[in-house]
Write a structure and sequence with these properties.
Elements: H1 2-10, H2 23-28, H3 43-49, H4 63-103, H5 108-133, H6 148-170, H7 179-201
Helix pairs in contact: 1-6, 4-5, 4-7, 6-7
Length: 202
């Protein structure tokens, strides 16, 4: 089940950055042509927050509700960043234990710890993704040029694909034939995830 969940998340690009709240200016100058939603949205955003989204019956598309949604978006993206650091820390721990286990495959206590850390990382990683994927859309999309945000998104495709591969290969890691592939996928996931965090922060 966890593979299916991660696969579904991988099919959607991750949008992770909060922008300035422009709604105040729009509310002052609002007319019938004012657009409250961006033209481009993630599939998850369109399904839940689009003009005919699933949440529109309880949160109609008005300037006041969009103001509330942008505040919610900001909170979710802050949570996304915090959970990203938690996930990165978990990955470091998992990598250290995994390297020890790689050299000492007979130690069951290391294996149990590695599997426990893997579960922790999968939960925090998925939570990190959900905070971005299901956040309300921004007022406008600005990332038309190469930027830290766009690099962050590109890297998210790599680390999400690598996370799926790591999980799939985890069950076969006891086989010497698959062990190097599991390790390579794990290192790729960690490296691209760390680079994505660095790109967004610096």
């Amino acid at each position: 089940m966890k593979y299916i969940y991660l696969l579904l998340l991988s099919l959607i690009s991750i949008e992770t950055f909060s922008q300035d709240d422009l709604l105040g200016d729009l509310m002052k100058n609002q007319d019938s042509t004012t657009e409250l939603l961006p033209k481009r949205m993630l599939l998850t955003q369109r399904v839940f927050w689009g003009e005919k989204g699933l949440l529109r019956p309880i949160s109609p598309l008005t300037a006041l509700n969009r103001e509330k949604e942008l505040k919610l978006r900001r909170k979710m993206l802050v949570a996304h960043q915090i959970m990203g650091f938690v996930t990165l820390g978990g990955m470091v721990g998992q990598g250290i234990v995994g390297a020890s286990l790689y050299n000492n495959p007979g130690k069951h206590n290391l294996k149990d710890l590695h599997e426990g850390l893997a579960s922790f990382v999968n939960i925090t990683y998925s939570t990190t993704a959900v905070m971005s994927l299901f956040a309300p859309p921004p007022l406008i999309n600005r990332d038309k040029k190469i930027s830290a945000i766009r690099i962050h998104k590109w890297l998210s495709i790599i680390h999400m694909s690598s996370m799926i591969a790591t999980n799939i290969l985890a069950d076969k890691a006891s086989d010497p034939k698959f062990k190097p592939y599991h390790r390579a996928a794990a290192y790729t996931a960690f490296g691209s995830f760390a680079a994505a965090v660095i790109a967004i922060k610096f």
